[in-house]
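Because discrete structure vocabularies remain unfamiliar, we turn briefly to a single example record, giving the amino acid sequence and backbone structure tokens:
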Amino acid sequence: MKRLETVDALREWVGTARAAGRRIAFVPTMGALHEGHLALVDEARRRASRVVLSVFVNPLQFGPTEDYRQYPRNLIRDEALAAERGVDALYAPDVSVMYPPGSEVRVVPGPTASRWEGAVRPGHFEGVLTVVAKLFHQVMPDLAIFGQKDIQQLTLIRRMLADLDWPIEVVMVPTVRESDGLALSSRNAYLDPGDRIRARGLSAGLFAARDAWRAGERSAERLRALVAEQLEAVGGVAPEYIAVVEPEGLVPVEMAVAGTIVAVAARLGSTRLIDNVILEPAAGRS
């Protein structure tokens, strides 16, 4: 595996791969790699002959009271995990590489970014789309792999690619979970033992809504209530939103159909977690 830290070095590596006729898959991450990230690498390996994984904690997507400085970082561990899983190139630029002095142009998203995560974290998606746009221009992949857990981010990236006519295929990988249902997240490391147990309420609520939909429940309000009931039952969980939305613009719906997304964000102490399920028949995956 090659470790790259500058745009020039990355482009040279990509150019060599392209000249050899290689199909390139890209997995952007903020590091603190876990099995969820590595599942993205596995999917990338299945779909392409070369895999680039980036590790960059993007300051633009953190608000002034959020955990940018405390966000877990361990590049040596990340590099070892990436190499073991078959990554061909690890791109780990410094902040000064991504945002040189004088950098001021940003990608401004549309109204889909103002809902849910965007309402709770103003400016977050401007930072996300800006860094993803820069990474896409630097890597120039054939396809990019993202996880379902960050469903609003994925929706906005797809919208950006469509609106700006970029020929990059986006692949969504279902959320990887612990044995108790908790979605894997780098922020799970912040949870104390009690909050770790209570965090199971997020997935329990989502699974209750999914199971009710499969049993014939179609009322979005009732599905929201089922999630809320599970969060209330575990105690110590402060929900920020419970959303039942259509998949294109994440607009709330009154009646759920196949493809409807049920998403939740909540705080457990100082830790903020998000999760979602996509309503599908029992044979589908969430």
In short: The CA atoms of residues 147 and 173 lie 5 Å apart. The chain has two domains: 2-173, 186-278. DSSP finds ten helices and nine strands in the chain.
